[in-house]
Amino acid sequence: MGDLSQNQSAMSVYIMGTDINGVETFPAKTTPNQDLSTADLLVQGGTQGALVVGTSAVAARVGVANFANRKALTVTPDGDIYWGYTNGVTTASGTIIYKNQQITFSVSDAVTIWLIASTNRNVRVTEGG
What we know:
The protein is mainly beta. It has one helix spanning about 5-10, and strands at about 15-20, 25, 30, 35-40, 45-55, 60, 70-75, 80-85, 95, 105, 115, 120-129. It folds into 2 domains: about 5-40, no CATH class; about 45-129, Jelly Rolls, CATH 2.60.120.
């Protein structure tokens, strides 16, 4: 077997994936500088809503369940609130989100973020997938 030229040995390789509907997509691309990159984009839209967060922990979501195939969760409160990964979060143990600040979590629908406040706060929530 003879030696292969550089072009012959460097055949194209395709990285193929599928979206949630099984349609083949190319999740990898090259930049103008020929750097390999990937993009994890929202592809199915999302939902938005409002919550009242008080002295009992509330799940940060729109509706009764996390948005299916969620990739992003955004929380914007009208007053100071706290967040954590369990429904046992308290104002002493949670991480603060200040009034009118916005935080975006890169989380799947398998992860629930919990919110709590020292008094009732109105909170806007978006979930996207």
